Amino acid sequence: MKVLKTLALTTALTAVAGMAAADVKVGMITTLSGGGASLGIDTRDGFMLAMGMADRDDVEVVIGDDQRKPDVAVQLADEMIQSEQVDVLTGIVWSNLAMAVVPSATAQGKFYLSTNAAPAQLAGRGCNPNYFAVSYQNDNLHEAAGAYAKSEGYTNPFIMAPNYPAGHDSLAGFKRFYGGDLAGEVYTTLGQTDYAAEIAQIRDSGADSIFFFLPGGMGISFLKQYSNSGVELPVMGPAFSFDQAILQAVGEAALGVKNGANWSKDLDVPANADFVAAFEEAYDRLPSIYAAYGYDTANLLLSAVDAADPAEDPDAFRAALKAADFDSVRGDFSFDTNNHPVQDIYVREVVQEGDIFTNKIVATAIEDRSSAYVDECKM
Amino acid sequence: MSRETILNALLVAGLVALPLGAHLAGEPFTVTLATRAVILALAAVGLNIALGLGGLVSLGHAAFFGVGGYAMGILASHAQSYVPLMEAPFLIEGTKSMPVIWLVAVVASALAALLIGMLSLRTSGVYFIMITLAFGQMLYYFAIGWAPYGGEDGLPIYVRNGFPGLNTLVPIQFYALCLVVLLLALALHAVIARSPFGLALDAARQVPERVRAVGLNPTRLKLAAFTLSGAITGLSGALFADLNRFVSPTMLSWQMSGEIMVLVILGGTGRLFGPVVGAAVFVALDHHLGGLTEFWQVWLGVILLAVVLFARGGLIGLIAGERRTDA
Amino acid sequence: MSPILIAEQVLNGLQFGVMLFLMAAGLTLIFGVMGLINLAHGSLYMVGAFAAAAVAGLTGSFLLALIAALAAAAIAGALVEIVVIRRLYARDHLDQVLATFALILIFSEGTRWIFGSFPLFLDIPGWLSGPVTLPGGIAYPLYRLVLIGAGLAVAAGLGLLISRTRIGIQIRAGENDREMIAALGVDISKLYTIVFALGAALAGLAGALVGAIQSVQVAMGEPVLILAFVVIVIGGIGSIRGALVGALLVGLTDTLGGIFLPELFKLFLDPATATAVGASLASMAIYILMGAVLIWRPTGLFGAPA
Lengths: 379, 327, 306
Fold this sequence. Notes:
heterotrimer; A: Rossmann fold; Rossmann fold; 12 helices; about 20% strand; B: mainly alpha; two-stranded antiparallel sheet; globular; Peripla_BP_I (chain A); Amino acid/amide ABC transporter substrate-binding protein (HAAT family) (chain A); Leu-bd (chain A); signal (chain A); BCAA_transport (chain A)
């Protein structure tokens, strides 16, 4: 199956699927160029796969490339709202871009379905009835790693993240479910590529395990350098650093690493088996966690469109979203009062299958996890 | 009238007519896009004063752009949460009023420019380019770690700030406001270029010895130009943050400095309307190329390269001829 | 903090500095001889890393990968010089900044066009992996020691090339008086192409060497480029010796700052705040160093007075 793609010559937006007068218009803002493009491409491909499989002509999707720049994301959101008149926005990968777009989009009465980023502010005091995080709350996967560290009986982990809000949330999330002593707590520079100094600190600290959150290229660099350092402690992290695309670039250095995730390709759910097979068939590569979120988001959207038109009856559409009546690739899925998921969170281990490095589930870290900020949300 | 004067008049007419037409045709997004171009043009007008009049190649103007942006973000976020900025020794509250925010943005970025300029002007040439870059990076990393104001996540403002007598949420009204500010800044540039200060600055750029001989201090002249330049770019930063209802460290990044510089050179360095042409073309390219191919930045690069190699004096030079008028 | 840890961190700082030197040497050479600011130098670093990853993937040989990196970056450099850069020598720095800024866009997205959006795999060969034990009981990765050795060897080789060879004489002459060496019958445009290709090859080598322990991805060159600029400005633009000293200073400041500043703040702040504040200040440390050097010596440590 090839995904349809029509180029619109007079606008920056690429209109895909459903050319006829569609009832519902969806705007996808995601990162398709520059360093972070692989995440956005997976989000888009997962989302469009579900749209293609549903084969509907009443939903139109317009896609824009945010270049991972907040001001470009805002400009795209303005264009989609003002001139494309979309009803629903989705697709942003990064928290800082989400913070730039979501509050003002929901203030204008639009719906936003998050395929990835779900910063604490939007889960707590800044929650909004029109904002749904389909993925998780940012802290969740770090919490899972914390819970796992506790269950494994680690007593002295060394924890590390970049010095920016998501990094601070990450370490807070880990500590929330771990709760014991730490060998060390370090914030690195965002975009740092050399971790020799931190690895020396780890060696010196007497730690019994390592938890790190270093998304993208930072995680690749750290793992390669760590595996070559002679330090051999168990390593944990959130799924982002052990994603399908990243693992191939890390290679054997990642084998055995445990990571917190709410999805894995071997998750034993019928909808998941269908998704993995269809994704490989369509794109000739294994799906990543971002593709899974994109796919779930599209199916949630379609289930709500069946119930009501977002422009004509937003209340019914919102209620249908909240009901989450769709076959999630993650199995049981529901929304808590702050419109963030309640779901099981697992621990995966990096393994090698033939030539491919991938993940398999080894334990359930937390069952029916909601988010830490749900009580702060008043709506 | 020179060809450049005619071109400038046409440009002003276009700045008024095109967005008005788009507004009447019911295309608010075109107006938003034009607003973006006008605000970026204002940032470049600021840089053009340092670059075109003072000969100061600053690769750190994003610092002032960002200071202006954060002035807006900080004041508005405090107004939004009803938490005062400061209680002792005297009370300072946040505000959602544009004139107040602009004043703070101008003063804050002028101060930043004065400080950075005082230190940077000890160097010259490539060293000046690099030290301004270093100051920009310093502020960038500071903002990323500045947790109370969002750090790397940035600071969203839920509703655009207000201006007495206008509804700034209506795209065409906010556009008109920005356009007036841009035209005032252009007028200021034109007046300065002809003033004794401007002439002395021009001389300080070309033959500093002669300026010194008549008893003027070339470094002070340049510092004054740099400060003014930073203040204007800072004002545009406040407007840019208001356009996006958001401010984040990306406004302080070196790529932003590079982009502001691209706008000036694309249009024509030292030309009064160079920044306007540069910003309009850049925003249009940025917007339209994206729809053509996923790898549009390659073509943006090729176009920029062609301008440098084959259109010396920028686009205005291409249309109005090489010779720089005294504008 | 134990003396062993401090010694290890100093080694880490040295290794980082030596790698920065490979980048900075080409940059400062190109500026010294041709008076050109090349923002696209980071792109040549990326070209080297991608070429190495591609060849290592095909052949499995790390040495072939290094050769490929050198060759690819040198060829890319020579091509860029012939097609674009040589039209810029007579222009002011402003045009050079814009043109090479445009080259970054072309290189970055062009690489993504060819290799796709996903990071590539490039690993250390087996015979260089793992730690070795140094005197004093420091377990240190062998590959990083090799990096320090390789970088210092390149520095020495470059020094010899410039002080002892015919081309070195031409380079030094070119730095002093461009018109004169042309008048003496040296083919100046060929010399410029060679110097540019040499600088590019050094950047490509750095990209390949570092790519083996970092992430080979689009836009990997820009952060290093900025650091390399800081290095040559501190050292004095055009001076190879300055680039070496500057690179080591920056490498040590960055590494040691990241370690000691948070510890310093822990003396009078609570640990969580101290780590965050210390980390913020550490990321600004090299720029503060650069600002301080320039205020003290406006043309860098080894630069000719203006």
